[in-house]
Specification:
about 15% strand; binds nicotinamide-adenine-dinucleotide; 12 helices; alpha/beta; Rossmann fold
Length: about 280
């Protein structure tokens, strides 16, 4: 970049250059080398133009989160740019955008590929963040099954009955299970592969955040979605900027002792669900 002579920047890589991801970058990436990965070339062009004209140092790469080799190449590209201090995964689809097979492949297996690949390149003292969902709190996976998930390599998750039988029943189950697995993926990496590199990783579970993805959900789920929002203590939707604020905390030095956890940011929806103030599906 013409104005910027610092050639020794920390690298921040974002997989999924959508609404939440770009809000996180804008909040946290000043002075760092940004690598944006997305399946949509159009998205990448638009977002990188916006960031470049706002003074950020950006590179882009087309990545398909469904393909292990593509995700690994993305991680390698990040490492070639400098010390990879931050990785954020927001590549995902919501229930009304896809079939169960796609939700599981993208939101669960794709996330696993990314956590595995970045677990090989993170710099010491680095931090990662997976964007999961409040849906990860809506379906209780039995303890023994969660232990089995934790022991299972990413490629083999599809073979587990909780995935190939339960999650495939409908998009709701697929999404809730995939997003709970995201919490376990962060926990597992924090305790093993990322630990070995002295890097932290957490997940974050947003409630309803108004983005194009949420508009698709509103269009399909309508009244039941509104009832869920009304039942939350906040009685409103959230914004990508609120997610970015919390992400900056989790990625930053103030959270240096926070590792392997999920942070639920939902305005109180899950509190309403757990206490019976709101019943799912009504
Ligand atoms: N918006 C909400 O209300 C909400 C709530 C909870 C969780 N989430 C989760 O947050 C994450 C980000 O959501 P968002 O609202 O910013 O959505 P978004 O649609 O703005 O961003 C998702 C991005 O992922 C990219 N993507 C899709 N498939 C891909 C693939 N195969 N490879 C690479 N990139 C791919 C899309 O092109 C898009 O840029 C998702 O995982 C979503 O499930 C969203």
């Amino acid at each position: 970049m013409y104005f910027d002579r610092n050639e020794h920047k920390e690298v921040i890589a974002l997989l999924g250059a959508g609404s939440m991801g770009t809000a996180i970058i804008r909040r946290f990436a000043a002075g760092r080398k940004i690598l944006l990965g997305d399946i949509s070339e159009k998205n990448l062009e638009r977002v990188s133009r916006e960031f470049t004209y706002s003074g950020y140092d950006v590179e882009t790469m087309i990545v398909n989160a469904l393909e292990k080799d593509s995700v690994r190449a993305f991680a390698q590209k990040a490492a070639s740019l400098g010390p990879v201090k931050y990785f954020i995964d927001t590549a995902g689809a919501s229930p009304n955008q896809a079939k169960p097979e796609h939700i599981v492949a993208l939101d669960m297996i794709g996330t696993g590929y990314a956590v595995d690949a970045f677990g090989e390149v993170m710099a010491e003292g680095g931090a990662g963040l997976i964007i999961s969902s409040q849906a990860g709190y809506m379906y209780a996976i039995p303890y023994e099954t969660e232990q089995e998930i934790l022991r299972t390599p990413t490629e083999e998750l599809m073979n587990l009955p909780i995935v190939k039988d339960t999650a495939m029943q409908n998009v709701g189950y697929a999404y809730m299970i995939a997003k709970r697995v995201n919490h376990l993926q962060a926990m597992k990496a924090a305790a093993a592969t990322w630990k070995a590199r002295r890097a932290r990783i957490n997940s974050m579970s947003p409630g309803v955040i108004v983005t194009p993805l949420a508009y698709d959900e509103f269009a399909a789920a309508g009244e039941s979605y509104q009832r869920m929002i009304d039942a939350s203590a906040a009685m409103r939707t959230g914004s990508s900027d609120e997610i970015a604020e919390a992400a900056a905390f989790l990625l930053g030095d103030h959270a240096g002792f926070v590792n392997g956890i999920d942070l639920l940011i939902d305005g109180g929806t899950i509190a309403a669900v757990r206490t019976g103030e709101y019943q799912l599906g009504r």
